[in-house]
Structures are given as C-alpha cells and as structure tokens.
UniProtKB/TrEMBL annotation:
It comes from Candidatus Protofrankia californiensis. It is an enzyme of class 1 (oxidoreductase). PANTHER family: DEHYDROGENASE, PUTATIVE (AFU_ORTHOLOGUE AFUA_2G13270)-RELATED, PTHR45033. It comes from the Bacteria. Gene3D superfamilies: Medium-chain alcohol dehydrogenases, catalytic domain. Residues 10-323 form the Enoyl reductase (ER) domain. The chain crosses the membrane at residues 153-179. This is NADPH:quinone reductase. The keyword Transmembrane applies.
Length: 326
C-alpha cells in the first residue's frame, strides 16, 4: 500500500509518501480501506518522538473508510485496549498511531471492537474528524466534567478541533459556552456555531474578562483547559466549579494558590481520550440532539501530509484538517 511514512523523528519534512507493507490479517482484527484521515496535534507529538514509536512508522489516529471484509462504511475508534474500568484506562491502553501503524495510509488494521458504523449524514472528512476529538471532548465535558443543561462552560482556544466540538456538544444539550482565542475572527466564527461570546487571551486579565461574561458574572460551572493555564482557569470558575484539564499545549507545569483552591471548593479533573462506552455515549448524543457535524477547515490529498501538518502547526485554521483519498 501507499502511506505517509516517518523514518526519522523531527520536522514535518520527514514525512514521505512511500510504499509500506500491507496490514497482515489476524483473528480479532479488521482492515479498513481509508477514505479520509483527520489530523490531530497528537500526530505532531508522535512525529517529534514524544511517544517513542517504532520506526519506520505511519502516523494517524483518526480515519473513516470501508471494512475490507464486510464492505461496511465505518469510522475508527482510536482508543485501543482501554479496559473495563471507565474511570481510567488500563495498563495496555494506547492511541492508534502511537505504536500500531496509523491512518496516514490507504489501509489500516485495527481491533474489531474499534470500528463502528459511519454516522448517517456525515461526509467522509466529517466522519474521519469525529472520533478522537469527539471522544475526547465528550469525556471531558460529560463523563468527567458532568456538564448539564443550563450550566455554563469556558473553553480555552477557539480554533482547535476540541473547542469547535465542545461548542457543538455543549450547546446541543442546552449549556452556554464562552471561548478564548488570540483572534477576534475565530471568536466571531465560534459565535456563529452557537457560542455566546469570547475574549482575547492576549489581553491582560483575560480570565476576569471571561468571568464577567459568565451568567451573572459569578464564574463558570466548568472550564475546559487544553493549554495548561490552570491559574487563570481557576480564576474564571464559580465557587465549587470544575476545572477539566486535557492538554498542555502552552505550559506543562502549573503553579496555583493551594489555599485559594480548597477554599473555593473547586474540582480539578484530568482526562484523556475515552472508553468505548464514552464513544457510545457520544454517538447516542449525536442521534438524539441537534449537534453540528465536525467543522472542517481544509482538506489535503494524502500525499500532502507534510504541508497539512505544517498548516496545523501554524495554528491559523478553524476546525479540523483532513487528508482525503480518491
């Protein structure tokens, strides 16, 4: 098969479109002929060597296509071997594309339990963009964050896939959402998706400015932090609010006022991509509520993965970036 092959960790220029061995049939696994593959920041970390993937390697966690054995149109659930405990993943858990060859390819092999029918009404790019960001955001908002109708949420970073998905899911259940961004244009686009407003995190005291946009100015019930700004995130919470942390794109360490934290009665909740039960919950929500499909920013051909990742790293987009195949 043809695939985007990484033979050396480093920059996006190390991605090469080349021949790669076809997946081998094995009991309990199935092979999917991919129609579209979505990019995630996780792919950049794999490319940089953060997960010590074997080389040569094929990146990619997200994809949608056709099962070779049955002809069924499917999406791939990239959370492998989570286990039976929904509170946290088991010792064998990994993300597709970490150590197993991923979806930047014509074919990918995954455990049978990691394919589900493609949701009706989604295009191939939208279906490919759903699994990782949808599963991660669903778990963050609902399984861990316990967000309910009538509550409010602040989401850090208006343009990323998590943020755009969070707006759709939260608004879909009847919650309100405010976002942060470095771009007024991205905030305006988020408002068109249903967000109630946003603030520029480049401005001083942005956390207080965000808090003032919460219902009654009391603070948010939940803050979704994928960047590592814990101190500011806590400042934007109401007393007893929940800080849900699912990334560290701008800071890997956080300094917080411990006394203020416990007097504020806050919850600090870590989360990652979720379990198969979380994904079932996501699909049920999509079927039962009016939730917008994943926002697609740009679609590149599979053989332009280098350019697609460079575009992702610039951070200029709004929504998901996808690699499409004929």
């Amino acid at each position: 098969m043809r695939a985007v092959v990484l033979r050396e960790f480093g920059a996006a220029r190390n991605l090469r479109f080349a021949d790669f061995p076809d997946p081998r049939p094995e009991p309990g696994w199935t092979t999917v002929r991919l129609r579209a593959t979505a990019l995630n920041w996780h792919d950049v970390l794999v490319r940089q060597g953060r997960y010590h993937s074997p080389l040569p390697h094929v990146l990619g966690a997200d994809g949608a296509g056709v099962r070779v054995d049955t002809g069924e149109e499917v999406v791939i659930v990239p959370s492998l071997w989570w286990g039976e405990d929904d509170s946290a993943p088991g010792a064998d858990w990994q993300i597709l594309g970490d150590h197993q060859p991923g979806t930047y390819a014509e074919l990918v092999r995954v455990p049978v339990e990691c394919v589900v029918p493609k949701p009706a009404g989604l295009s191939w790019p939208e279906a490919a963009a759903l699994p990782l960001v949808g599963l991660t955001t669903y778990r963050a908002l609902f399984t861990r964050g316990r967000l309910r109708a009538g509550e409010s949420a602040l989401v850090l970073g208006a343009g990323g896939g998590v943020a755009t998905m969070a707006v759709g899911l939260a608004v879909g259940i009847g919650a309100s959402v405010v976002l942060t961004s470095s771009s007024a244009t991205k905030i305006a686009r988020a408002r068109s998706l249903g967000a109630s407003g946003g603030v520029l995190y480049t401005e001083p005291d942005w956390a207080q400015a965000a808090k003032e946009r919460s219902p009654g100015g009391r603070g948010f019930d939940l803050v979704l932090d994928s960047v590592g700004s814990w101190r500011e995130s806590i400042q934007a919470l109401r007393p007893g609010g929940r800080l849900v942390v699912l990334g560290a794109s701008r800071a890997q360490e956080a300094l917080i006022d411990v006394r203020r934290f416990y007097f504020g009665q806050y919850d600090l909740l870590g989360t990652t991509m979720g379990s198969p039960r979380d994904f079932a919950g996501l699909l049920a929500l999509l079927e039962s509520r009016q939730v917008a499909p994943p926002i697609i920013d740009r679609v590149f051909p599979l053989d332009q993965a280098e350019q697609a990742q460079q575009y992702l790293e610039r951070g200029d987009g709004f929504g998901k970036i996808v690699l499409a195949q004929d």
